[in-house]
Amino acid sequence: MKYIDKLRNSGLRPTKQRLQICEVLFNTEKTFHFTINELERKIKDKIDSKISLATIYNTVHAFEKKGYLKQIPVNSNQTYFDTNTTDHHHFYNLKDGKLIDLENSDVGPINIKRKIDGKKIKSIEVLVKLED
Amino acid sequence: MKYIDKLRNSGLRPTKQRLQICEVLFNTEKTFHFTINELERKIKDKIDSKISLATIYNTVHAFEKKGYLKQIPVNSNQTYFDTNTTDHHHFYNLKDGKLIDLENSDVGPINIKRKIDGKKIKSIEVLVKLED
DNA sequence: AGTGTAGTTTATAATGGTTCTAAACAACTG
DNA sequence: CAGTTGTTTAGAACCATTATAAACTACACT
Question: Which protein residue has its CA closest to C1' of C10?
Fold first, then answer.
């Protein structure tokens, strides 16, 4: 199976639930953004069996820790995730809470001139809020 | 009084509570970042009387809407606010959840080349996550 | 000053996303 | 196949935030 090795290599047991979630998250043409709520619905639509909400949370966090998902910093009551783990940025439509990918070429290089002693930069994320 | 006009000009009645919160938020040498929880503690420390938590939420949201405070997009279970409403960005120390201001000159101009029809850019915010 | 109105504060309840719990279950090892 | 460890699950707990609705207060107008 497609995702069994990926999971095993990450030290995650390839359980039925995780494989199903992999299908929903990664077996797509395009990457996408989601909240846990939206993912839950997507899973319900795609598979017959039910996956517990706790498992969805566990799995998403496990995948994030392994670098298969990214959290997007947005002010919202819900946490947004992205299946696109490459360096890129986002538009955030304040009206409907939807995110739109911004290619790196749409933003240009960002050069952080200041350094903090003993710290490394893990990521640089640009959020462009949109209004009407 | 210092803040009465500021409030009145914004269409906010200068109540005792709002004036006290103004003192805590704006009568400082340096701007700062805070969560509602931290602000509540700060208020308790500074004044004798008690301000209801609901009022603190109401006031912070009112001030944000008027542009006296900014929300900072960070992934955290709590909402972070900033009394520095000028255009600037943030380091986010993943270890302790603390924010550090990044002057605009530390980042350089950010030029968003892509446009979304019918939408205006309200803000551009850069979050630089730091790890050890 | 006194009165009416609209805006504000308050304690408390409700909401809702997320995490915890601990028991049942499933994947792996030998 | 048995033991161990990791995983799933339903439901409870947690906690930041928002809603409620009653008491209160700033303000405009006499």
Answer: B52
